[in-house]
Specification:
mainly alpha, 2 helices, rod-shaped
C-alpha cells in the first residue's frame, strides 16, 4: 500500500469508529430515557399500593366491608 492508501484507510477506520461510538451513545441515551420512564411508573405504582394499603387498614378498623364490596374490588 502506498502512503495515500494508508491515509485513506486510517480515515475510513476513524470514521467507522466514530460512527460506532455515536451509535452506542445514542443507544445509551435511549436506555436512560426508558429507565427513567420505568422508574416513574414504579413510583406511581408504589404510591398506589401505599394508598390502597392505607384504605384497607382504615376499612378493617371500621369493621370491614361486606362480601359484595370485596368481590367488586377484586374484579376491577
Amino acid at each position: 500500500m502506498n502512503n495515500n492508501q494508508n491515509k485513506s484507510l486510517e480515515f475510513t477506520l476513524a470514521g467507522n469508529l466514530g460512527n460506532m461510538i455515536g451509535q452506542q451513545a445514542l443507544q445509551v441515551a435511549h436506555l436512560q430515557v426508558a429507565l427513567k420512564e420505568k422508574n416513574e411508573e414504579m413510583r406511581q405504582k408504589d404510591n398506589l399500593i401505599a394508598e390502597l394499603k392505607h384504605q384497607n387498614e382504615s376499612l378493617q378498623k371500621r369493621g370491614g366491608v361486606d362480601d359484595k364490596r370485596q368481590i367488586s374490588i377484586k374484579h376491577q
